[in-house]
Each structure stands twice: as structure tokens, then as C-alpha cells.
Design brief:
The structure holds two protein chains of two kinds.
Chain A: H1 2-8, H2 26-36, H3 40-53, H4 58-70, H5 74-87, H6 92-104, H7 108-121, H8 126-148, H9 169-174, H10 178-185, E1 199-202, E2 211-214, H11 231-247, H12 251-255, H13 269-281, E3 286-299, E4 302-313, E5 317-329, E6 332-340
Antiparallel strand pairs in A: 1-2, 3-4, 4-5, 5-6
Helix pairs in contact in A: 2-3, 2-4, 3-4, 4-5, 5-6, 6-7, 6-8, 7-8
Chain B: H1 2-14, H2 23-39, H3 43-56, H4 61-75, H5 89-107, E1 127-132, E2 137-144, E3 147-159, E4 176-179, E5 184-185, E6 196-199, H6 205-209, E7 218-220, E8 232-234, E9 238-240, H7 242-249, E10 258-262, H8 270-291, H9 295-299, E11 302-308, E12 311-312, H10 313-325, E13 330-341, E14 348-359, E15 363-375, E16 378-386
Parallel strand pairs in B: 1-10, 3-8, 7-9, 11-16
Antiparallel strand pairs in B: 1-2, 2-3, 3-9, 4-10, 5-6, 6-7, 11-12, 13-14, 14-15, 15-16
The chains are: A alpha+beta, B alpha+beta.
């Protein structure tokens, strides 16, 4: 594992899913491949070429930050991720990576603040929670050192901070850098509704005090922020809501369950939307029943649900096996992929 | 603007008059607040509190340890005080003891009474120091028209092996009545002693008489990387936080300020007052018997086990009889008298005064020290010498 090895020096373990870069961004895809091969200079060249055309592009800047990090150029990497947190304050990943870099420099207070920001934007963000736990342990060890003047060579409390290697997980699934696009067209406008602030509180017992998140009541905004510690249950509920909207022939509500760039093979997003609207409008009645739903939590922001779908409409009665790939985006569970059959 | 004036006046009057009523007291109260918050499962409050302490004093090791525990508790379950993985147990134990001592101190009210070791302060002695080694506390009293009045108290560390020093190297702090002998400034010391040191008069006349030895018992500060040391940490010295030592130092008079070290302070009561009156009466009787040239009455004030340096009672009596036989008149005047009961020794009092001696063939002025001891209900002198 080349990546692991590279990052072990900075006390980094546990990386995430493979990066899939949008097809149209060839330079970025190449850059990513080069980075994975450890060809940092070449990767940087590609990223820079891309950024020359799209200097604001979040994904490219993120990748550039990663390259700097791999080159052990923490200062440059920090500058890049700091810039990303300023331009995209709603994204948790840049905060997380900032935290990892700060931790690598022993700046635990800064690392802690950055992770708290990541959690504030995405309260159920597991990586940030895990990293925060590591930071606390590291800070504790630092405090102990100061209390007891322990041997400074004590290295058994290495952090296992994970540098997030991916940005915009939903794009990974759908293949389109939505945020990038929005930032390109309207950089001055915050691209997505900010998540409601969540408070992080420590559990009340000294003996067992894991960090838990407590959700603040959602703001009465357009985007309802779902904050949960149980993604499987939330996705299961979303799946039933999705079936209910479909059964009610409420196509707007139904379509709202899909990512904004959701598409099917051979169909653009708008073509797909038109097709769905027509098909939902056509029958006099629709009834969709979910049977034997099984969830599989990929990570805190990705859950897949498989079930037997009983579809009954005025003209059709069918059973099928269906899988929905849900992704947490902007505080909402959305369908990024829909497959029929096994 | 009368309201502004009022505010200003309030600020002026709220400035603490007490010397130690400042940062170090706040430290202790803050620590206590944090530890109480831990007990009430209010870990966020506890952490905020130690964080603010450490902002002021990053070298407050006990606070660092508590902070370590509070942070670690967020990362994983912890089971006890001081969870540092490689910590020597003795060090954790030391800090646990400091936590206990400071918690107790934080809960304590400031004393309303007077320790029974301050029977009389001389008008020249503006302050007196009384130390309670069990409570890890040094009290500072001010002499207000002859009455000791509480000013401040400070957390202290004493000898690793506790109190009641007997011999060189026993790592104990002596118990007794001592005086501040000198002031050593920072530039004459290594960093270990902090911002300064005040050597004490150990071993005193009584210690020497009992054959106790050792030397170099000082009040001093802490190294620059250490805010405070555990309750039992020194080789016998009394150690204060540097800012506390500086506070205290402003009130110490070299050669004058008494430093009385007790294992547990006894506080003055009615019986004690009667005892004090008895002693003062005996001293006056001794003076007048001397001035009256009634040598046998005068010598009757000296105990059988009296000694003055290398002179025992019979040698002393012989000498006094000889001297007094040549006198046609004697005048003795005592002033600046102080009397400090000995903490570790019942019915023993250290008495100092300035003595104006005038006679037909000799005039002399000296500072004298006597140890008076109550034997069978009578106050007698067991030691006498120049102070």
C-alpha cells in the first residue's frame, strides 16, 4: 500500500475509498492516478494545468493540497486547505485535512479547532470524530508530559489520523463535481445551504466518555438537516418515504430524493427527469411496497439499501429486486444510484 | 459623572489589601472548581477551568495532569487519576497529594483566630510567619498595634520525609521558632531555588542543645519550569510558588521576622492567655530582682538545667554573684520584647528583648534571647544569650 506507507511518516493511517474523478476532468483523473503512483511532480503539473483554466475548482485544489501533503510540504498544503475552508465552509473534508496537517506539526489546538469545524458542518462525520479522539489522546499525552516531565522520546501514542483523500463523496458516485460547477458559475454565492450548527458534548462520565454528538434542532430552512448517529435507520426511513412519494404520484417530492445530477445510462439528468415525470403521471394509481429491505452502511455518508419492490399500477403489477445507493449530501440522504436486478 | 466616580471608587476599594489574596489563591480555587466539576460529571466545565489556569501558569503540573485526564477521557475510558501511560507511580502519588492538599486549602476559611505561637510581637516586627506542615500552608500575620492579624496564606511544600528534623540529610523540615536570617537574590542562586531564598536560623539554640544538626533550611521559590511542587518534595526547605515567595518576601525583615514551624497549628484560647500573662509577670519579676541586686532571688529564676553556651547553672551563678557584689546600683530596662511559644515543645517560650543595663561601673545595651520553660507551674530560664 503505497499511500499508507507514504503517510505513515506523518502518522496517518486508514484511508478511504478509491477516488473516481469525473470523466470530463481528464487532467484531474490523470493527476490522481499519478499521485497514487507516487509521481508527485507530474501529478502537480496536471493539477496546475487544470487550475490554470479553473482556478477556483474545489476538487482540483483539494488534490493539489493532497499532493503537497504527500510531498511533506505541510505549509503549502495547509495554505490550500485553509483556502478551501474559506471558500467552501460547508465542506468537512478540508477541515479534516487541515487538522491532520496541524497535528503532524504538533499544533493540536489548531487541529482540534479544525476538526470541531468539520463536525459542526457534518455532525455525523465519522472520520472527524475518530480524528478528534486521536487529537484528544495526543493532547492528553502532551499534558501528561508537562505534568510529569516524562521522557520525550515516548512515541507509543502515535495518532492514527486519517487524511481525507476524497472530496464530495456524492460526486464519486455520480461522477459529477457539482460543487465545483456551482463554484465556477457563482463563486460569490455559498453553493449549498449551510448545515445547522451541531454541538459536540462530551459524555458525562469520567470512566467512559466517548464523544457523542447532539443535534441542534434543524433550522427552518429549505434544506432540512439530518443529523444522525444511525445512518442505516435514517436511510431505511428515507427509502420508505421515497416509495410513499412515488405511490402518491408526487413527482416533485419523488425526484427530490435523487441527487441533483442523478442520471441513468444513456440519459442526461434532464432527460431522466422528464421520463420519470411522464411515467409517474401516466398511471391512474401507483402503489410501491418495500419488502425485506436490507441496509449496508459503507461509511457514515454512504448507505446502500436492497429490497424486493412490489410495484402495482393500473396497468402493471411487478416484483423486482432493487438497490438504492444513498449518499449523505448537504445534510440530506439522496439517491446517487439506482439498480434493478441482482 | 457621579456614576463613573462611584465605579472608580468601587474599583479602588476592591483592590485586595491582602498579599497572597491574589493569583495563587485564584489558581487554587480554580483547580478546586475543576475537580468539583469532575466529581459532578461536568467535564467540559472542568476542562475549561484547567485550561484557563494553564493559560496563566503553564507550569502548574497538577493542572496539566488533570487536563491530561480530561482530554484522555474524551478519547477513551479512563479509570483513575493520572492515566499517563509511562508515569512513575510515585510522581502520580505526589500530584494526587498536592490535589488533596490544595482541595483542603480551597475549602478552608481564612483563620479568625491567632496561632498560640504569637504571644507577643515586638513593635519592630511588622509581620510574623506561621507554618502548618500538615496542611501545607504558610500563614502571614501582620503586627497591628501588638495584635497579630491574618494577612494571607500560601500553599507550601516541605521535606520529603515530613517534619521534625533531627539530623543532617534526614529530608525533614524542622519544627520550632526560627528567624529569617538573610535574603539571597535570584542572581546568587541556581534556577532550582526560583526567584529568591530566605535562610532560616535552624539549628537554633534549642536544636543545638538537643544535639540536632543539619543546615541550609530556607524559604525559597520553584524552578522556572515548575509552578508548584508536591506537598512533600524538598530536602527540608519550605518551598513556595515564585510569585508567592515574592509576595511574602516584601513583608520579611531580615533578622527580625519570626518563622514558626508547627506540624499542626494550635490556636490561641483563654488558658493560653492566662499562661502568657504568667510568663510576662515572671519576666518582669526577673528584671526587678536583678535591678534590686537581690542576687539569690535573681538566680532563682534560672532552671537547674540552665545553660548559656558552655556555662552551666553553677558557673553562671558564681559569675553573677561575683559581678553583682561590685554593684552599688543597677538599672535594667527591657524593650521590644517578643515571646513565641515553641510549637513542638510544650511550655517552652522563646523570649527576645533589647536590654538597657546601667550600673555604677558598667553601662551596656544588648539584644538578648532567653528560653523560658514552665517547670512545676513556675516559669524558669533554661537558656540565655545574645540574640
Amino acid at each position: 500500500m503505497k499511500m499508507l506507507k507514504l503517510f505513515s511518516r506523518a502518522a496517518v493511517l486508514g484511508l478511504l475509498l478509491a477516488i473516481t474523478i469525473p470523466v470530463q476532468a481528464d487532467d484531474l483523473q490523470d493527476a490522481n492516478k499519478l499521485l497514487k503512483q507516487g509521481l508527485h511532480a507530474q501529478a502537480m503539473e496536471k493539477v496546475n494545468a487544470f487550475l490554470a483554466a479553473k482556478p477556483k475548482d474545489a476538487q482540483a485544489r483539494f488534490l493539489k493540497g493532497l499532493i503537497f501533503a504527500e510531498q511533506n510540504n505541510a505549509d503549502e498544503a495547509i495554505a490550500i486547505f485553509t483556502g478551501l475552508t474559506e471558500d467552501y465552509p460547508e465542506l468537512p473534508e478540508p477541515y479534516n485535512n487541515l487538522a491532520v496537517l496541524y497535528a503532524g506539526q504538533g499544533q493540536y489546538e489548531k487541529a482540534k479547532s479544525a476538526l470541531e469545524m468539520a463536525i459542526r458542518t457534518h455532525p455525523s462525520y465519522a472520520t472527524a470524530h475518530e480524528n478528534l479522539g486521536d487529537i484528544y489522546a495526543k493532547m492528553a499525552s502532551q499534558a501528561y508530559d508537562r505534568a510529569l516531565q516524562l521522557d520525550k522520546s515516548n512515541t507509543n501514542t502515535k495518532t492514527k489520523l486519517a487524511l481525507i483523500r476524497e472530496l464530495f463523496s456524492k460526486n464519486v458516485r455520480t461522477g459529477k463535481p457539482a460543487v465545483t460547477a456551482q463554484a465556477d458559475t457563482a463563486p460569490a454565492v455559498t453553493p449549498v445551504a449551510p448545515a445547522a450548527p451541531a454541538v459536540v458534548v462530551a459524555a458525562p462520565a469520567v470512566v467512559a466518555a466517548p464523544v457523542v454528538t447532539q443535534a441542534a434542532p434543524p433550522k427552518p430552512a429549505v434544506t432540512v438537516v439530518a443529523i444522525s448517529v444511525d445512518p442505516a435507520a435514517d436511510v431505511l426511513k428515507a427509502t420508505h418515504d421515497w416509495a410513499a412519494a412515488w405511490s402518491a404520484k408526487n413527482s416533485n417530492k419523488y425526484l427530490a430524493f435523487y441527487t441533483r445530477d442523478f442520471n441513468m445510462p444513456g440519459l442526461s439528468h434532464s432527460a431522466w427527469v422528464a421520463q420519470r415525470k411522464a411515467r409517474i403521471a401516466a398511471p391512474k394509481s401507483i402503489q410501491v411496497e418495500i419488502i425485506d429491505a436490507k441496509t449496508k452502511v459503507v461509511d457514515d455518508t454512504h448507505v446502500s439499501v436492497s429490497f424486493k419492490q412490489h410495484y402495482r399500477a393500473s396497468h402493471l403489477n411487478s416484483y423486482s429486486i432493487k438497490t438504492l445507493e444513498w449518499v449523505m449530501a448537504d445534510g440530506q440522504w439522496l439517491i446517487a444510484e439506482e439498480r434493478s436486478g441482482k | 459623572m457621579p456614576s463613573r466616580l462611584l465605579a472608580l471608587l468601587l474599583i479602588l476599594f476592591s483592590v485586595p489589601v491582602a498579599a497572597g489574596d491574589s493569583a495563587s489563591r485564584d489558581m487554587e480555587l480554580g483547580l478546586a472548581k475543576s475537580l468539583h466539576a469532575v466529581r459532578n460529571n461536568n467535564l467540559d466545565v472542568a476542562l475549561t477551568e484547567v485550561d484557563s489556569l494553564l493559560k496563566v501558569n503553564p507550569n502548574f503540573k497538577l493542572a496539566q495532569l488533570v487536563r491530561g485526564d480530561l482530554l484522555l477521557a474524551r478519547a477513551r475510558p479512563i479509570s483513575s487519576f493520572g492515566n499517563a501511560p509511562n508515569a512513575p507511580r510515585s510522581q502520580i502519588q505526589d500530584l494526587r497529594e498536592e490535589a488533596n492538599a490544595r482541595l483542603q486549602r480551597a475549602q478552608q476559611q481564612q483563620p479568625v483566630g491567632v496561632p498560640k505561637y504569637l504571644w507577643q510581637l515586638s513593635p519592630k516586627q511588622r509581620y510574623a510567619v506561621v507554618i502548618d506542615t500538615d496542611k501545607s500552608t504558610l500563614y502571614l500575620f501582620e503586627n497591628v498595634n501588638g495584635e497579630p492579624r491574618y494577612v494571607a496564606d500560601f500553599y507550601i511544600s516541605v521535606g520529603k520525609k515530613g517534619a521534625d528534623k533531627v539530623s543532617e540529610g534526614d529530608q525533614k523540615t524542622p519544627l520550632g521558632v526560627y528567624f529569617v536570617n538573610a535574603h539571597l537574590t535570584k542572581d546568587k542562586l541556581t534556577d532550582f531555588y526560583g526567584t529568591g531564598a530566605y535562610p532560616l536560623s535552624y539549628p537554633n539554640e534549642w536544636d543545638k542543645r538537643l544535639g540536632r544538626n543539619g543546615h541550609g533550611i530556607w524559604l525559597h521559590g520553584t524552578p522556572s519550569d515548575t509552578y508548584s511542587r508536591p506537598p512533600r518534595a524538598s530536602n527540608g526547605c519550605v518551598v513556595l510558588a515564585n510569585n508567592d515567595l515574592n509576595d511574602l518576601g516584601r513583608h520579611l525583615q531580615i533578622g527580625l521576622t519570626p518563622v514558626i514551624i508547627a506540624s499542626t497549628i494550635d490556636w490561641s484560647d483563654d488558658a493560653d492567655h492566662a499562661d502568657r500573662a504568667g510568663l510576662l509577670k515572671a519576666i518582669e519579676q526577673w528584671r526587678s530582682d536583678w535591678a534590686s541586686r537581690n542576687t539569690e532571688a535573681y538566680l532563682a529564676h534560672y532552671a537547674r538545667d540552665f545553660s548559656a553556651g558552655n556555662m552551666n547553672l553553677s558557673a553562671f551563678a558564681q559569675h553573677k554573684r561575683l559581678v553583682n557584689s561590685g554593684k552599688t546600683w543597677i538599672k535594667v530596662k527591657l524593650s521590644n520584647l517578643s515571646a513565641f511559644p515553641y510549637p513542638s515543645q510544650p511550655d517552652l517560650v522563646v523570649v527576645d528583648f533589647d536590654q538597657d543595663y546601667d550600673s555604677n561601673n558598667l553601662t551596656n545595651r544588648m539584644s538578648k534571647r532567653q528560653y523560658w520553660k514552665k517547670q512545676d507551674g513556675h516559669w524558669l530560664i533554661v537558656y540565655e544569650g545574645a540574640a
